[in-house]
Amino acid sequence: MGYFSSMFSGFARSFSIKKVKNNNGTSDAKEAADEMARDAKKKEKILKSCGYVYADGSNNSASVFSKRGEKGVNQDCAIVWEGFGCQEDMIFCGIFDGHGPWGHYVAKHVRNSMPSSLLCNWQKSLAQATLLDPEIDLEGSNKKLSRFDIWKHSYLKTCASVDQELEHHRKIDSYNSGTTALTIVRQGEVIYISNVGDSRAVLATVSDEGSLVAVQLTLDFKPNLPQEKERILGCKGRVFCLKDEPGVHRVWQPDAETPGLAMSRAFGDYCIKDYGLVSVPEVTQRHISAKDHFIILASDGIWDVISNQEAIEIVSLTTERPKAAKRLVEQAVQAWKKKRRGIAMDDMSVVCLFLHSSSSSLSQHVHHSTTFK
Predict the structure, then answer these.
(1) Residue-wise pLDDT tens digits, 75-99
(2) CA nearest 197: which of 106, 86, 306?
(3) pLDDT grade, residue 328 (50/70/90)?
(4) Is the C or the N end of the chain the one with fewer CB within 10 Å?
(5) In what order do the strands lie in the sheet with 250-252?
(6) Can you give the residue range of the structural domain that contains 129?
């Protein structure tokens, strides 16, 4: 991705925050932060003109694959952006699962706008934190404002602004359409996870017993989750299953059999936003250890038929990293045909983010209790 980094000559340097040496206080800090934000906004045109950095194909640090289901156009899309913000130790990954008549447009719009907006907000938040408190130690144990706080604030602001922008988009009708957004920023040895919707992130790590085990990093935000249902009911929305879909809980308007949304958080879907649907992300972090090998981000079509443990075994048994995401999708397609016969297959998208450079096989950590053909 060297060609991409060269486009931003000098951009990375803007992330090295200089301390304010005068006594003008908050006004100078705000002015400097605003200037940095304006600079980031200028880069936004370049980001959008390039589309996305890496979304079709794979390399050694990440593997990406998406397959259209049987419901029409593929409404899933993904992104892997290496050297995020021109920082060598940063990478941005995301899975976006659209739904509704305009879902594929909504998903691509959010995918294309979220990274640049997040960069802008992160840059501004970092500048404000540093300039308002020149002695701040983002690594120290007694810090008032941690790196996590800055990323969380940036994500919350980004998701709010992206959703607001989408609502007023002149060319995309998102009143009855929307998308999920599951994204990860890796910065050094820490990952920051933002989840809006029901796509899922699963970590493959080695247990104390030496076997490879799955750790689910996100919640599937379904309407029947207690905290989600409480919010929806409090906003006069309804949550129930259709008779021919037992176990599939959906969000409905108070007095109409619409929209029947099978998730409790999403971008778009403004027909239900007043009744409990939100685009607020759950933001979490995890420190990467030597035992952590890779993270799988996947849309719900995968998890409908593949368990967390099965997914990490499939990826770990794939000898060539670039083929890992495709192999997981292929196995999910086969599982769908067996487990959900007669039901139209969903779109399926996967990003596998490998956490270490070692290309050694993980097969010795896997209990071969499951056979994958």
Answers:
(1) 999 999 988 888 888 999 999 999 9
(2) 106
(3) very high
(4) C
(5) 238-240, 250-252, 259-261
(6) 2-221+263-365
* Alpha helices (runs of H) in the chain, residue ranges in sequence order: 2-7, 26-49, 103-132, 147-167, 226-234, 300-303, 308-316, 324-339
Residue 228 placed within a domain: no
Cβ contacts of 83 within 8 Å, gap of 6 or more: 1, 4, 5, 90, 91
Q: How far apart are CA 123 and CA 185, in angstroms?
A: 14
Q: What is the pLDDT of residues 263-306, one digit of tens each?
A: 999 999 999 999 999 999 999 999 999 999 999 999 999 999 99
Q: Following DSSP, what letter does each residue of 200-236 receive, concatenated?
A: EEEEEEE-TTS-EEEEE-S----TTSHHHHHHHHHTT
Amino acid at 271: C
Domain count, the chain: 1
- Cα–Cα distance for residue pair 266/197, rounded to 1 Å: 5
Q: Give the pair of three-digit tokens for residue 86.
A: 């021109």
- List helix spans (H) across 57-102: none
CATH number at residue 60: 3.60.40.10
Cα(308)–Cα(296) distance, integer angstroms = 9
**Is residue 232 included in any domain, yes or no?**
no
